[in-house]
Amino acid sequence: xxxxxxxxxxxxxxxxxxxxxxxxxxxxxxxxxxxxxxxxxxxxxxxxxxxxxxxxxxxxxxxxxxxxxxxxxxxxxxxxxxxxxxxxxxxxxxxxxxxxxxxxxxxxxxxxxxxxxxxxxxxxxxxxxxxxxxxxxxxxxxxxxxxxxxxxxxxxxxxxxxxxxxxxxxxxxxxxxxxxxxxxxxxxxxxxxxxxxxxxxxxxxxxxxxxxxxxxxxxxxxxxxxxxxxxxxxxxxxxxxxxxxxxxxxxxx
Length: 253
What we know:
single chain; alpha/beta; four-stranded antiparallel beta sheet; 27% strand
């Protein structure tokens, strides 16, 4: 396997006047191709700072961050933007969809900034394929107002995948969803990971982290534990359990 993410003695310090806040205080982390990693930690633990740096939205104060072998600290603003567009896909807690455009148009949007830009026909084809992959092939012309929360998150995942990234970053992707929909979304991530996609996800929910293969826990700007998930939840099995529980409740009602 080859490293998709490498943090080497990564430190991040924020300065406000004479006050310094050490958000991350010397972290070493390697994520290999094909891994599915959850990053956990309380507010102020440094997990969001680390995620922003992996996502090329911030730079280390000291140390190095390498994405697919490229050191991000040495890149200019335009080079960072190009790296994000080519290598990274982002999924957030808020779906961040354009309200007046269709699912297809929302997914096509990242390709507008690709270099070289795909032709209009290729954009439509790739967006259609991405939406079909997440189970929305029959809702291409639906605007967000005509989609459920889970369907909107599926559109957001398709949008993150359309430029065929090396790494998929998800920041609290189930935070606005109910339990059943959360399991369905984690099932999509598991399917993508099984097909070879590297996935890194920030979450504060231990049950959601248990759908991943590896859990990194941060506290006070340091990695406190980095372990494989001993008994991993499989989304298909969890949905079957949930359906059986719901049927049992209906029968006793």
